[in-house]
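Contributing new complexes? Match this layout with adenosine-5'-triphosphate.
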Amino acid sequence: KRKFDPGTQRFELHKRAQASLSSGVDLKATVQLPSGEDLNDWVAVHVVDFFNRINLIYGTICDFCTESTCPVMSGGPKYEYRWQDDTKYKKPTALPAPQYMNLLMDWIEVQINNEDIFPTSVGVPFPKNFLPICKKILCRLFRVFVHVYIHHFDRILLMGAEAHVNTCYKHFYYFVTELNLIDRKELEPLKDTMDNKDHHGHGAWIYEKR
Amino acid sequence: MAMTEQTPCFPMSNHTKERVTMTKMTLENFYSNLITQHEERELRQKRLEKVMEEEGLRDEEKKMRRSAHARKETEFLRLKRTRLGLDDFESLKVIGRGAFGEVRLVQKKDTGHVYAMKILRKSDMLEKEQVGHIRAERDILVEADSLWVVKMFYSFQDKLNLYLIMEFLPGGDMMTLLMKKDTLTEEETQFYIAETVLAIDSIHQLGFIHRDIKPDNLLLDSKGHVKLSDFGLCTGLKKAHRTDFYRNLNHSLPSDVNFQNMNSKRKAETWKRNRRQLAFSTVGTPDYIAPEVFLQTGYNKLCDWWSLGVIMYEMLIGYPPFCSETPQETYKKVMNWKETLTFPPEVPISEKAKDLILRFCCDWEQRVGASGVEEIKTNSFFEGVDWEHIRERPAAIPIEIKSIDDTSNFDEFPDSDILKPMGVACNHPETDFKNKDWVFINYTYKRFEGLTARGAMPTFSRPRK
Ligand SMILES: Nc1ncnc2c1ncn2[C@@H]1O[C@H](COP(=O)(O)OP(=O)(O)OP(=O)(O)O)[C@@H](O)[C@H]1O
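Output block (do not edit by hand):
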């Protein structure tokens, strides 16, 4: 693969992109609702962007997340996630991770494609239950992080994508805590694992900083 | 091609590998853009505060301005979630053609605003295997915001094409103007060259080198003032811009005796007859390219001033100095400019004009502008130019337009089938380039102003099993 010659525009871009993934960047400042602006619109654009990126991240490991590797959707031995919806799974149901992920992604996609929930025309108001729906979406997206970090982080490392995933998680964490969109309780699973670090000595950024 | 380091080897299907590369690249770009956008947002806020301070507004007025500003920012957030597509525009007319697609006058259905839409065929661009080029330059270009560069509003893509929505310049392009007129007067030439000097300087100040200044890329706005067309898209794609295209040519003197022996009138006629074809071909023309650009030894921003010299020659003489029957011959003449750059005695021009052309078209070490743009501006050819206000004053040739969608300054082009998927798909089976779509992944671009949007949400790329 080709390297970029220092001094060229592409090299500059490459450097810039790399730098923005490094911890030097103040992502925390970027998630605060700018004064005077609409909270719903702010949340909406973030939710859609997070969905797209987390979806992509899961896409890179989904070949390795199968019914046999992950017969139950979980985040380590302590946390098991059950799926529930209004159609097929009226009761919380334990499912293999890939199946759970598919349902999860499909469900979110339907929500954000729904103009009544995520209006895209200027002037159309958001529904009253918009924030509760977003909280649910974010809570479910967080579980994707949990599963990827605890069960598939070795793949992420092999792909050399840990900076990418860490940055995305960091951004996500700042966003949901800044605007109080996820229960602290939900965030627990990653707290534990990140503290211990994995066998490569890679912990997520958040506890490295402490 | 991706901006990522090499992925370590472990058993992965090619498909997965490509997905990994795409994901990494997308995330890198996302975070790079996020930071830029955050900074820009803060800058806009600061600018607002500064303006209000300067205007000495009362607190109450400030409050109102601030909330109006916040509302605009929120609208932009909406815009980011929407996606314009081909369906949102009515295609009115083909107004230009290039090597990789065409330019159409379009109207946004909901607002009625008129734009120019540049359509680039992905397959054609992939064949040239230079797409990386496009992206990198485009990413930076998007930040350029200048009176002298055509404004870009929005871009999107579908399976077949990339689409750029930009401001429509009803005055047409310089190439069309030059083909309509035999030559320009010295006064007209002074005006266009002076404005182009400022335009080129403005992109130099942003840190770009254009490398492909030619009359086709000089557009005229509704008042007849110059703007550079969106650049960096296809530059370097055309064969004529690549040294290897000429590799097996020796640098012996040109041999198109036929052409050499024509008088300037015949030359101009021949040139004009071939001109359109040259503009549409993927080979392109090396007529305006500085000799050092072809050499492996490197070049700098001064190469753009050479191109301007060639254009100035063409304006006054009626054809560019190195024009020939074939790009290869032209290339030879450019490389041998010391012998081939001559002025036909039957088309007299002023000494000042001749002198400036020779100051533009010379070794770059000696070229005017080497010590800065002031050196160009103070050249005696530009005597009397009001550099500060040239853009506000009447243009040398006023443009007459009857309406915002008047296309009378453009040539007629037959309607094409570029927008009809089937027509194109037959020649390029979709499978050929579908897998490479990630190359264009961060192509879409939205500008903070102008368009209000409606339409469908993005499509997602999660692989289905
Ligand atoms: N914004 C615009 N408004 C009006 N006309 C335009 C605009 N952009 C392009 N055109 C017309 O379309 C023609 C072709 O456009 P352009 O030169 O950008 O395409 P191209 O030839 O494919 O690109 P390149 O210059 O890289 O070869 C121009 O010469 C001009 O006549």
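Reviewers usually confirm one structural detail per submission. For this one: Chain B touches chain A through 58 residues (CB under 8 Å).
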